[in-house]
Hints:
Layout: H1 10-21, H2 28-62
Amino acid sequence: MKTIQAELPERLYQEIQALVQGGWFPDEGELLREALRRYLDAHRPDLMEDFIRSDVEWGLSGAN
């Protein structure tokens, strides 16, 4: 497993702490992993479309 460091706004950190202390998640790491999984699941088609569009634009610009 990889470790990622990130700076968070204080308000967001307080919300994370409240969810952990409320028993919704066992720790901060588990909450962040779940949040990232859900974000990627929800945005994967958009992200893939952006990657494909960038590749096509790059390929077309190289053909000139």
